[in-house]
Design brief:
Protein name: NADH-quinone oxidoreductase subunit C
Shape: globular
CATH class of one domain: Alpha Beta
CATH superfamily of one domain: NADH:ubiquinone oxidoreductase Nqo5 subunit
Largest sheet: 5 strands, mixed
CATH architecture of one domain: 2-Layer Sandwich
Order of helices and strands: HEEHEEEH
Keywords: Cell membrane, Membrane, NAD, Quinone, Translocase, Transport
Family: Belongs to the complex I 30 kDa subunit family.
Subcellular location: Cell membrane
Number of helices: 3
Strand content: 15-25%
Structural class: alpha+beta
CATH topology of one domain: Beta Polymerase, domain 2
GO molecular function: NADH dehydrogenase (ubiquinone) activity; NADH:ubiquinone reductase (non-electrogenic) activity; quinone binding
Length: 148
């Protein structure tokens, strides 16, 4: 996998590689995510988006998007991460590459407030439409009738 990662670093000079316990993590700026994911899917055989999630790091003022990709034919796995500004978390939608990203992006939007430009129907999926806030953010406080 070393040659593979070196090739990606040549194509994406801002790419940071972090060794993981199980698989390497590629950290890429948000504006390069779509190009990297297109490369991984169309030219490198990572044909399956296993999952995506968001992690809140309020102490660092960031939200980290985490994507797990599998190459079913190549029996390989890779992790891609994107650090977002916590006040305005936004990263391109991957629904054009993987239609299954639709529901997972809606969940990250609903629960963490991440916006996905290019998403075909970005709206809440678990919370009511009139719900205020994003309940998986670490600073979220549930408001009850009559106070806290």
């Amino acid at each position: 996998m070393d040659n593979f990662i070196q090739e990606l670093q040549r194509l994406f000079p801002d790419l940071e590689v972090r060794e993981g316990v199980d698989v390497p993590a590629l950290v890429v700026p948000a504006d390069q995510l779509l190009a990297l994911m297109t490369e991984l899917k169309e030219k490198r055989g990572f044909n399956f988006l296993a999952d995506l999630t968001a992690v809140d790091y309020p102490e660092d003022e960031r939200i980290e998007m985490v994507y797990h990709l599998l190459s079913v034919p190549g029996m390989a796995e890779i992790r891609v991460k994107v650090n977002l500004d916590r006040q305005h978390p936004e990263v391109p939608s991957l629904t054009a590459l993987w239609p299954a990203a639709n529901v997972q992006e809606r969940e990250a939007f609903d629960l963490m407030g991440v916006k996905f430009p290019g998403h075909p129907d970005l709206k809440r999926i678990l919370c009511p439409d009139d719900f205020v806030g994003h309940p998986l953010r670490k600073d979220f406080r549930l408001q009850t009738e009559g106070g806290e």
